[in-house]
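Bug #77: duplicate submission created two jobs. Keeping one. Sequence:
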Amino acid sequence: MEFLTTSEAADYLRLGERKLYELVTTGAIPCSKVTGKWLFPRHELDLWVLSGLARPAGMLIAEPPPVVGGSRDELLDWSLRESGSGLGSISEGSARGLERLQRNEVMAAAVHFHALDASDNLASDASVEALRAAADLHDAVLVGFVRRETGLVLPHGNPKQLHGLTDVLATGARMAMRQQGTGAQMLLDMLLKRAGASIRDLRRIETPALTGPDLAELVRAGQADCGIATRAAARSARLDFVPLVWENFDLAMRQRSYFRPAMQALLRFLNERRLRQRAEELTGYDPSPAGLIRFAA
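Kept job's structure:
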């Protein structure tokens, strides 16, 4: 994150320092006071300028509906309700959510991408790279929501004694799958590659689960021996859980959507103590990234 001093911010915005101080005094410009000095995050200044962009008559830009697409998450669903944002949700996986964002069909997409060529650090910035590579998203912003603990969801008591993906492969345990394009399926593909295996080496339940809770229900009903989902999904279904990785779970949006009232209501809520308390109750969440801008195009 790049910070500008008062003089640098004034030059960047083509304003006089006196005018900049007036904006600071009235709370009309994003800034932060650190050890007595005002600092201005440059990406926030970009968003601030874009929020007031005027367009000529006849230049119609369709506004996306107040919907968050992408990946399903229990804490996010709760936050959408409790924040009073009025935002709805549609759960189709990270890749499909990003596609809808590109087509202006959603205001934001909840994403947790994983890359097959990621480094040994499983919590890589594959989501940042996905936004960089996305066509028509030159104005993208990636806002942190939480980090989530993801792993194997197992029947109560772990009857097959599965302690990792190696055990799943060795025992031929039935594994519930997610549809292609979901972050969970990307994670599974990545972990299998690191184990020198592939999807073909698994004993799969062919019909994919749409969401993590749907996958957990397949395990709870005895239709599968395991699957990849979050600790929160396993806890809600009263299932056992073997952790595999902590992953970034973020909100991708266009810069102009960042300042929309519905999105601002949600983003303000991310700083409230209630979010941290709920994350602790659900388990498997680290809310420390909530509200932080992780990438701005």
